[in-house]
Specification:
The strands form four sheets. Strands 7, 8, 9, 10, 11, 14, 15, 16 and 18 form a nine-stranded mixed beta sheet that branches. The protein starts with 5 loop residues before the first strand and ends with a helix. It has 15 helices and 20 strands. It is α/β, with parallel strands linked by helices. The longest helix has 29 residues, at 171-199. It has helices at 37-45, 49-55, 93-109, 129-144, 171-199, 207-219, 231-237, 240-245, 299-314, 359-372, 386-392, 404-417, 428-431, 450-459, 494-505; strands at 6-13, 23-28, 66-70, 79-84, 114-117, 161-168, 224-229, 254-260, 269-273, 275-279, 320-329, 341-343, 349-351, 378-382, 397-401, 421-423, 441-442, 467-471, 477-478, 488-489. Helices cover 36% and strands 20% of the residues. A hairpin with an 8-residue loop joins strand 3 and strand 4. It is elongated. The protein has two domains: 6-196, 3-Layer(aba) Sandwich (Leucine Aminopeptidase, subunit E, domain 1); 202-505, Aminopeptidase, CATH 3.40.630.10.
């Protein structure tokens, strides 16, 4: 299989006017009348070409837009890429991320080998340079990513690597950028890894294959260990939820536990991710339209996998457990049925009313495991409900929690990472809808508030631990290419969860 693009990142102190590269990217705001100092200097060397482009209206600085000015041999760069940043008064760290992603995507499309990023100069002192270095590194990975492992034709001729430098003329500023770049490169690479595993189809990644990938990751990552429970071990432990969902498939379920032991003695943080490697809906089968996208129903588990990779490589001092219950939800003679009553790992019984509400069935075993391992807090992430997409569209994930402080911490991580969440309720009124007359719980509620009732169901399995649930069903997939990325798995959750964990250290 073809390897994904190898991104090489570093910082460098340079004279902007003499800096030799294939492409130099600078940022321009749409609502700033005067160009910043760097762009003014470049404009002068280019004989006023940048200013002329703006005056003609060919480049307006809108977010997601760009224009190229070709060198007249008075600067070292062969091309100057003007990247639109939108309105300065609305600029956030996500603006920085998108600008870097846009530049990287453009470079890959043009088969450019070397890129210099000086995007941070337009923001002045608005953001900390170390943070901007991290965000630009993450954005570079995000924009340059392509999933073409199985494309044997070479007509696109895309290069195998991309060399990117974060540059400044001041060595003190460069050092600050470099400090952030090191962590940003780890996080960006982890997200690209997650996107690749998520994009792989069901005939390549089934539960046993995902477990093998987790073991491979642990073997190659210092500080990370991996334990996998197979079908017999799941049965011995009474993990009825995972077993039920995987009962109709020839690919047997697996329960994956990754552990990273930090140097401090605080209680480990538990991350639980749903990994349904393909979701047909089971006997309550889904419509055929877009069913191929159901290979992405493992995205929550993959987000945990990518986060554990980042945590270990960052060498964070806190302990983190990554719990990934995995199954393939298929119809068959041995499938679980509507009407079945399942005994879960917690001992609670669940009446199955719809086999397509399978995510909560595997997650409840994963949450109970994390609770029994004394993880606190526990955060689960899953492509759980279409109802969340109806509520929030394709722009952000739903966030439910039993702890106000944890909610605020997750929102802060979302703001800093650019992976947006929106708080939603999951209280007792929603939990009451999940009560069954013939078991402790049922696995679906009424027609309304499906994301909230699903979260309320999960809340029954965390005991008194602090808990948050991220319903990422609306953001795991980029259905169409954007100015910042190609289509396919988004890798959502890796930046969010890693930023949350980094903030805990702070």
């Amino acid at each position: 299989m073809k390897e994904i693009i190898d991104v090489k990142l570093k910082t460098r102190t340079v004279d902007f006017g003499k800096y030799k590269t294939d492409l130099l990217a600078v940022g321009v705001f749409s609502d700033v009348k005067e160009l910043d100092r760097l762009v003014r200097e470049l404009n002068t060397k280019l004989g006023g070409a940048i200013e002329q482009l703006i005056k003609l209206g060919d480049f307006k600085g809108k977010e997601g837009s760009s224009a190229i000015v070709y060198d007249n041999e008075r600067t070292g760069a062969k091309r100057i890429l003007l990247v639109g940043l939108g309105e300065k008064k609305k600029a956030t760290l996500d603006t920085v991320h998108k600008a870097a992603a846009h530049a990287a995507k453009k470079a890959v499309a043009m088969q450019i080998k070397t890129v210099g990023l000086a995007l941070h100069r337009a923001f002045g002192a608005r953001f900390d340079l170390t943070v901007m270095g991290r965000v630009m590194a993450e954005g570079t990975y995000f924009g340059s990513y392509r999933y073409d492992e199985f494309v044997t034709e070479k007509e696109d001729g895309r290069l195998g690597s991309l060399s990117v430098e974060l540059i400044d003329c001041d060595s003190a500023r460069t050092r600050k950028l470099n400090k952030g770049l090191s962590s940003g490169a780890i996080i960006g690479k982890a997200q690209s890894y997650a996107r690749t595993i998520a994009n792989r189809p069901g005939n390549v990644i089934d539960p046993p294959a995902l477990a093998a990938e987790a073991k491979k990751l642990a073997r190659g990552t210092a500080g990370l260990s991996c334990t996998v429970l197979d079908k017999k071990q799941l049965a011995a432990k009474g993990m009825g939820g995972v077993l039920a969902v995987g009962s109709g498939s020839q690919s047997e379920p697996r329960f994956i536990v990754l552990k990273y032991k930090g140097t401090n003695r605080r209680t480990p943080v538990g991350l639980v991710g749903k990994a349904i490697t393909f979701d047909s809906g089971g006997i309550s089968i889904k419509p055929s339209a877009k069913m191929e996208q159901m290979k992405l129903d493992k995205s929550g588990g993959i987000a945990v996998l990518g986060t554990m990779k980042a945590v270990a490589e960052l060498k964070l001092p806190i302990s983190v457990y990554g719990v990934i219950p995995s199954a393939e939800n298929m119809p068959g003679g041995s499938s679980y049925r509507p009407g079945d009553i399942i005994t879960t790992f917690s001992g609670k019984t669940v009446e199955v009313q719809n086999t397509d509400a399978e995510g909560r069935m595997v997650l409840c075993d994963g949450l109970s495991y994390a609770e029994k391992e004394n993880c606190d807090p526990i955060i689960d992430i899953a492509t759980l409900t279409g109802a969340c997409r109806v509520a929030l569209g394709k722009y952000m994930a739903g966030l439910m929690s039993n702890d106000e402080k944890l909610t605020k911490q997750m929102q802060k991580a979302a703001d800093e990472s650019g992976e947006k969440v929106w708080p939603m309720p999951s209280g007792d009124e929603y939990a009451s809808e999940m009560k069954s007359k013939i078991a402790d719980l049922k696995n679906i509620g009424s027609n309304w508030g499906g994301a909230c009732t699903a979260a309320a169901f999960l809340r029954q399995f965390v005991g008194d631990k602090k808990w948050a649930h991220v319903d990422m069903a609306s953001v795991e997939l980029l259905e169409k290419a954007t100015e910042f990325s190609t289509e396919g798995a988004s890798g959502f959750g890796v930046r969010l969860l890693t930023t949350y964990l980094m903030n805990l250290v702070k």
